[in-house]
Q: What sequence folds into this?
């Protein structure tokens, strides 16, 4: 029986359990006059039955699938001939993969040995047994749950409270999934980073001025020994982000002021969604735009002025990224400017302040914490941006503050380190995790600051 | 008060007095009242040497006719109270007096309003100095999220009224003294104005308005967000301010109107129904609608 069929059967059983439970509640809850004296409404008895029927069976199903593969592989491996079992781990894994491929009917590389074919058959047998056992076990658990709850239904059973409790546990489980995923990501990056720092000292990584991760993988290869100083990469990130903010903050803030204070309703209704569309354009499209339109334009303009501009420049990437994050600044600022109470505007106007004085002296200071929060969110977006920089700013890790030169960013380096065939225990690959960890810490700090500022703003008016 | 008691004795509470087909109805007291259908303003709208005059003022919000042909004079150094049920246009009317309605989209105003004989809706009028001359205090205290000192200093600063810091300090101090707030806040001038109590915030807003040296102060229900004690303090303040300023106050409290004002104007659904001296309006109204309102029959 395939897992899908089993799930469908379990769902059908649960639905059936719902009706059984409800019917049973109605039977035990009604006296001869037909008056209901149940503790809870009948649907709760039905729900309780359905939940007790479905959830244990589903849990069993989940655990079974999680551990099935490991257990069966171990069983199969233990049946293999001695010679094969004594192979090194890496080669043994290759053989196991070969067996799995055979079982799945995939094309297998090389010649299939007799013992491997036998192991595959064994595996296939085990799988069939396991599936059948799972189906029997899960369906029995479901029916057992259904029977037990049905037997327990009396007018005094507090079904509603039970159901609410179960649902609360389900909600807790869902919310912890997000938390555990975050923790899992952080930990996996952290452990890989620690492996990296075993190979490269942490001080060298944080303060080294040269980034050149290409190193010899094999002893006989001719290659540089690799330099893992993260400073040029981070300077590149900061340079591009700074350029992006120089574009996005003035344009975003001023458009927000125009939209919220000067524009009439019709214009606002049209312009605001149009600006927000900027945030919905895929970054790879911005990348085309930066690489094919903006970068050559900047290079040609630089040539006219007698400046040597490389064809991939920080300026092009930063400017286009700035355009991309305009909506972050303008939309949030617009919201915060609108949140400034009309009473404050009236107060300023009634003192004879002009509109510009009101905006400069009353509205912007009042909205400033919110605007700062929006800008910080935009900064963390800019730091994490990859595609535009890959396409428009290049890959060379120059330690420079000149926006006309090629620079690279943390995210771009991570991509280039992990793309293609890699060895996952060389410092070159592990450096990506260290960079990721550092980037994560930086954006996390920015987000915390942004949230703090925004929260402080909330306290101000209420 | 007399009118109320007499109506009660005759037993008219809760039911409408009989109406004649003519323009007037006979009240239970034997006084003659203008009947409800008549929306011409009753009473003397003009005063000698007015500070402000309004003639045939109409206001539309989009299609809604919010103020219908209102004519009224505001005298010098008087407190004139605007009363009437919610939505009757009294706030809209006083917002015309310093052109605060200009900030509302879709608002259209016709008629003539003058300040010291000059048409404030004239072509050459700049609203900025006008609003300094005709200040406004709002229903809910709205101090700027700045220090107490900066709240007061803001107006004088944007109008360039102080040549140096000493003069600005002087203006801040005088304004706070006039608003009766100086003794309470003189040691806390650097603290945020939003940290004061509601009544203090409202006096801060009055001080802020006084600081730009206006001629007329418009008050839009200045005490509606305050407790009775803070209200009493503000009412005393209004009485003192009358010596230097003309005050137009909108209020929902008839007791407040009778305590602080010399003249009272009753608005009803955009019409100015009756104007007169405050004692006359509250003891001997001439219009049926005014009597209905002050006796608590509606509103």
A:
């Amino acid at each position: 029986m395939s897992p899908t069929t089993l799930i469908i059967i379990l769902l059908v059983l649960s639905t059936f359990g719902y009706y059984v439970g409800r019917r049973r509640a109605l039977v035990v809850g009604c006296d001869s006059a037909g008056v209901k004296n149940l503790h809870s409404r009948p649907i709760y008895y039905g729900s309780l039955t359905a939940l007790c029927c479905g959830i244990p069976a589903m849990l069993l199903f989940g655990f079974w699938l999680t551990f099935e593969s490991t257990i069966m592989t171990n069983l199969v491996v233990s049946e293999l001939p001695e010679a094969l079992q004594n192979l090194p781990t890496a080669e043994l894994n290759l053989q196991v993969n070969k067996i799995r491929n055979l079982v799945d009917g995939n094309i297998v590389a090389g010649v299939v040995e007799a013992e491997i074919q036998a192991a595959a058959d064994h595996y296939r047998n085990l799988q069939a047994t396991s599936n059948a056992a799972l189906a029997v076990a899960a369906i029995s658990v479901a029916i057992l749950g259904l029977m037990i709850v049905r037997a327990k239904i009396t007018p005094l059973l507090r079904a509603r409270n039970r159901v609410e409790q179960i649902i609360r546990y389900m909600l807790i489980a869902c919310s912890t999934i997000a938390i555990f995923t975050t923790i899992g990501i952080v930990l996996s990056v952290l452990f890989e980073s620690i492996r990296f720092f075993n190979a490269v000292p942490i001080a060298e990584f944080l303060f080294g001025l040269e980034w050149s991760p290409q190193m010899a993988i094999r002893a006989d290869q001719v290659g540089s020994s690799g330099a893992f100083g993260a400073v040029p990469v981070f300077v590149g990130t900061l340079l591009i982000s700074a350029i992006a903010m120089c574009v996005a903050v003035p344009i975003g803030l001023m458009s927000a002021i125009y939209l919220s204070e000067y524009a009439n309703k019709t214009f606002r209704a049209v312009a605001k969604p149009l600006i927000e569309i900027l945030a919905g354009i895929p970054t790879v499209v911005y990348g085309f735009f930066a690489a094919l339109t903006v970068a050559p334009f900047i290079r040609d303009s630089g040539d006219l002025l007698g400046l040597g501009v490389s064809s991939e420049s920080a300026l092009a990437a930063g400017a286009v990224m700035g355009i991309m994050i305009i909506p972050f600044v303008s939309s949030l600022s617009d919201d915060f400017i609108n949140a400034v109470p009309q009473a404050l505007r009236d107060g300023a106007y009634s003192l004879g302040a002009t509109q510009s004085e009101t905006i400069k002296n009353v509205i912007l200071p009042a909205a400033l914490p919110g605007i700062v929060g929006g800008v910080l969110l935009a900064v963390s977006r800019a730091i994490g941006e990859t595609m535009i920089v890959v396409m428009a700013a290049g890959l060379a890790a120059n330690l420079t503050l000149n926006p006309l030169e090629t620079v690279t960013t943390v995210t771009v380096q991570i991509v280039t380190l992990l793309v293609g065939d890699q060895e996952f225990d060389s410092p070159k690959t592990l450096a990506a995790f260290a960079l990721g960890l550092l980037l994560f810490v930086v954006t996390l700090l920015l987000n915390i600051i942004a949230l703090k500022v925004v929260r402080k703003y909330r306290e101000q008016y209420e | 008060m007399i009118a109320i008691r007499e109506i009660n004795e005759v037993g008219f509470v809760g039911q409408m007095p009989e109406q004649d087909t003519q323009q007037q109805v006979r009240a239970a007291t034997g006084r003659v009242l203008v009947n409800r259908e008549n929306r011409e303003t009753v009473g003397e709208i003009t005063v000698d040497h007015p500070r402000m005059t309004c003639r045939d003022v109409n206001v539309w919000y989009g299609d809604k006719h919010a103020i219908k042909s209102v004519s009224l004079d505001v005298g010098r150094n008087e407190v004139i109270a605007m009363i009437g049920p919610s939505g009757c246009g009294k706030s809209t009317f006083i917002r015309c007096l310093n052109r605060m309605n200009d900030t509302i989209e879709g608002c259209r105003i016709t008629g003539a309003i003058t300040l010291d004989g000059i048409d404030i809706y004239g072509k050459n009028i700049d609203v900025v100095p006008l609003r300094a001359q005709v200040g406004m205090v709002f229903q809910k205290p709205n101090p700027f999220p700045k220090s107490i000192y900066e709240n007061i200093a803001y107006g004088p600063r944007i109008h360039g009224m102080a040549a140096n810091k000493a003069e600005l300090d002087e203006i801040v101090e005088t304004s706070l003294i006039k608003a009766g707030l100086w003794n309470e806040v003189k040691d806390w001038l650097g603290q945020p104005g939003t940290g004061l109590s509601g009544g203090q915030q409202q006096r801060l807003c009055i001080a802020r308005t006084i600081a730009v040296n206006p001629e007329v102060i418009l008050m839009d229900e200045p005490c509606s967000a305050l407790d009775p004690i803070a209200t009493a303090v503000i009412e005393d303040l209004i009485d003192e301010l009358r010596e230097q300023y003309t005050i137009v106050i909108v209020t929902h409290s008839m007791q407040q109107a009778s305590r602080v004002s010399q003249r009272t104007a009753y608005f009803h659904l955009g019409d100015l129904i009756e104007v007169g001296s405050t004692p006359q309006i509250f003891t001997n109204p001439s219009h049926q609608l005014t009597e209905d309102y002050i006796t608590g029959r509606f509103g």
